[in-house]
Amino acid sequence: MWVTAEEEAQLLVRAEREGVTVPRLLVAAATSETVETPTERRAVIVELMALHRLLASVSNNVNQIARHANAGDEFPQDAKAALAYVRQVAQRIELIIDGINT
Q1: What span, in angstroms and rounded, lies between the C-alpha atoms of 33 and 51?
Q2: Reduced to 3 states, what is the DSSP secondary structure of residue 19?
Q3: CA angle (21, 22, 23) in 5-degree steps
């Protein structure tokens, strides 16, 4: 495939920005169903991994609240805060999924 000097310069700049080779950039562009770049894809993966860690932390908090409630003690006041946090994490997940699907 032949490209002009200007096109080659643009490819080199974009490949450098994306952290990939020019051939990898071209293959990704040609095989992608979306206009998503490798950098954007990595950012989504990083965000999903962060959300996974947050959900693990929330799960631990919910288990502690349930254990406390099952022990017959009063329902903890911080339960409302924990549930609000769960809702925030769920909303973040929905936003990311919406972003992936658009």
Answers
A1: 25
A2: coil
A3: 90
